[in-house]
Amino acid sequence: METNMETQEDKLYCPVCGSTQLTANKKGFGAGKAVAGAVLTGGVGLLAGFIGSGDVKITCLNCGCQCKPGQLKTSPLSEYEKQGYYNMLRIKAEEKKKAEEPMSTGGCIVLVICVLVWILIGVATCK
Questions:
Q1: Could you tell me if 88 and 54 are in contact, meaning their C-beta atoms sit under 8 angstroms apart?
Q2: Is 35 buried (19+), middle (13-18) or exposed (0-12) by CB count in 10 A?
Q3: CA-based Rg of the chain, rounded to a whole angstrom?
Q4: CA distance 74 to 95
Q5: What tens digit of pLDDT does each residue of 54-80 get?
Q6: 102, 107, 109, 113: CA torsion to nearest 10
Q7: Cα 69 vs. chain centroid, distance in angstroms?
Q8: Is this entry keyworded Membrane (predicted)?
């Protein structure tokens, strides 16, 4: 019969969010590297696309973090680390909300004044 500690040691955790929902993939041929190599060195440079093609890349299905196998955590995140992750999510949500907000009243006033000044300058230069 396994204890909770034994099953916990067998798991790997995302270093960013602490999730155990991870997937492993091998990197394939890199077209960008191949094109750069071909431009720099000619046809032989196409082989540069194979550089790093066998590397394993771990992707977290929860937060999308991509890392190498050695960067994974073998123990769950501490409460302090979890708090940092949730703070980061909160800050990103606030930034997104600010970007989506319509222009403030002060911004509208400044814009109207600028347009009026531009029109007045245009009218004054036409006379």
A1: no
A2: middle
A3: 27
A4: 32
A5: 678 888 898 888 888 888 888 888 888
A6: -120
A7: 19
A8: yes
